[in-house]
């Protein structure tokens, strides 16, 4: 047992691994909660658009101020993108087309900005795929702050966000402003993208945001259980992914990019849960295929 | 002394973007009264309800809810058509009804004993207490409608807007809904209900508004529901009507 679990703990005695773990655990908590709302609202495409739109901010910030400028640039781009996105989805005739056009354009701007640098390929790789193991203490603090703001935004509006996801018109009839709630959620998503970009990279952020919520939906239909389940699943995958990457490097000499490893563990976890869910559904099917006369629907404890 | 005015719509027109959807609407609704909106599919019934909620652009006229240009928060309950909702949404009936309490709870407070009692009472009112823990999407269409009505009831509204609540319901669900609407009226709630169902209009509504892109007629039920008015409203599909029944080809309700 110690041989199996030892690497899951020992790797994090190293400061750079501990910093990486702290960043990913904070991200897991926030991305888990925000990700469930993304899932309930079917905002996966919009989230993808946001990751693209934050990229020019990251690139401009990086070119302008190096690693220290990255967060500032990303934050500015994130807030602007969230506002533009909220207005587009409210007013555009074809929301998906508008999102695709605006955000691929934004991504191209980011690449153009980075391409003006001398070490173009190396810098682009860092921005796209992250550099989890070289995260500094200052960056950990920045990530924790951004995660805390995103968590606060979603936490303060969580009941209303769920109401919005279920029935927008009734929410408006109750006197709430759906546009305001949409803006809050889009800013929270954008902040998660910013926080995750330096860790797992701009291209892989989407997995951190989408997979935990999708896994929680496969496991339970209990509304308020979705949020902790998604966060715990994301945290477990982050922990295992980091440890696997470290072990592969130390014991087998295989240099695995840590961000990509974590994402692959997330996806493997999703597939495992999916297979389990399909198996459970298959086992239940014979009994439920022909419901007994007068049978009551399945009940959901709350 | 006449009951307090809950809703006044004067010379109102509504549009989606630049496309006019409904024009020339004039009517009022008092506390404890019900008005039926009757018209064919696409006549503007849902548009009018959403226009009153301020969700659709008003291009002319005025809408006053409880004497205000904008409905005071928490005073209007809205019951949508259930096919507008995601049947896979992971939420129980009890949690749906609790959404009706969110306005009273505010942003930060979690539901307490008083809120749970209000939810239980609302479920009892619509006769669904035994299904409180059931996932909303697993309820029948009629039970979902009653659940959404319970959500509106839990909020304690003074004006209730119901969008085609009786479509496809069996007799027991219809009776339960009619009973609930009657109780709400007795408590002073003003009810505006869109329907194809003349029987319902006769059962619970004192006045009727006939619509077909614009207002055809409005007034006391018996004076408005004449064959001539109804034929003018449904002129494209043709109707037959006797003292109790309105037969509208292509519509499930009658």
| Strand fraction of chain A | under 5%
**Distance between termini of chain A?**
37 Å
Q: Any idea what the shape of chain A is?
A: globular
Largest sheet of chain A, described in full?
Answer: none
Shape of chain B: globular
The tally of helices of chain A reads: 12
Keywords:
heterodimer, A: 302 residues, mainly alpha, 83% helix, 0% strand, globular, B: 254 residues, alpha/beta, 6-stranded mixed β-sheet, 3-stranded antiparallel β-sheet, 9 helices, 11 strands, 27% strand
Tell me about this structure.
The complex is a heterodimer of chains A (302) and B (254). Chain A has 302 residues and is mainly α. Helices cover 83% and strands 0% of the residues of chain A. In chain A, α2 packs parallel to α6. The longest helix of chain A is centred in the first third of the chain and has 48 residues, at 44-91. Mean pLDDT of chain A is 84; it is low at 290-302. In chain B, α4 (113-125) crosses α5 and α5 (141-154) packs parallel to α6. Chain B contains 9 helices and 11 strands. In chain B, the strands form 3 sheets. Chain B has a 6-stranded mixed beta sheet with strand order 5-6-7-3-8-9, with helices on both faces. The longest helix of chain B has 16 residues, at 171-186. Chain B is globular and about 50 Å long. With 254 residues, chain B is α/β, with parallel strands linked by helices. The model of chain B has no long low-confidence stretch (mean pLDDT 87).
List the helices and strands and how they pair.
The complex is a heterodimer of chains A (302) and B (254).
Chain A: H1 2-10, H2 15-41, H3 44-91, H4 95-115, H5 120-129, H6 137-156, H7 158-166, H8 168-173, H9 178-200, H10 205-219, H11 223-252, H12 258-289
Chain B: E1 5-16, E2 19-30, E3 34-38, H1 45-52, E4 57-65, E5 76-79, H2 93-99, H3 102-105, H4 113-125, H5 141-154, E6 159-163, H6 171-186, E7 190-195, H7 198-204, E8 207-211, E9 215-220, H8 221-224, H9 227-233, E10 240-241, E11 246-247
Parallel strand pairs in B: 3-7, 3-8, 5-6, 6-7
Antiparallel strand pairs in B: 1-2, 1-4, 8-9, 10-11
